[in-house]
Design goal:
6 helices
Length: 103
C-alpha cells in the first residue's frame, strides 16, 4: 500500500474498534446531557480569579517608553562588525546613537 506524505493509512475495523474501546474506557470522558449543557457557564464566569491570572500572564509586560521599529540603511561592514559582537548588537547600536545624540 502506498502512503502519501502527510496522510495516514485508512483505519481498519479492528483499529477503529480499539480506538472506540479506549474512548469508552476513559473515566474523564462522558456524554453531556441537556441538563449539563444548561448548567454550563463560561470559564471566566465560573473561575474569575483564575481567568484573570491567566489573562495577566500572557505576553511581555508593557513598558513605559517602548522602542520604535524603524528601517535604517547601514554599510554591510558596520552591520557585520556589530553582529560579530553577539546577541544584543542592535541594542549596542542604539546606545552608541543615544550617546551621539546627547554629546
Amino acid at each position: 500500500m502506498e502512503r502519501r506524505s502527510g496522510r495516514s493509512a485508512p483505519s481498519t475495523d479492528k483499529v477503529e474498534a480499539e480506538i472506540q474501546r479506549q474512548i469508552a474506557a476513559d473515566p474523564d470522558d462522558f456524554d453531556a446531557t441537556e441538563q449539563d449543557v444548561a448548567r454550563a457557564r463560561p470559564f471566566r464566569d465560573a473561575f474569575p480569579d483564575l481567568a484573570a491570572s491567566i489573562e495577566r500572564a500572557r505576553g511581555r509586560p508593557k513598558v513605559a517608553n517602548p522602542k520604535q521599529v524603524v528601517s535604517i540603511r547601514l554599510d554591510p561592514d558596520v552591520v557585520a562588525k556589530f553582529k560579530a559582537t553577539g546577541k544584543g548588537w542592535q541594542s549596542r547600536i542604539n546606545e552608541i546613537l543615544k550617546q551621539a545624540k546627547v554629546g
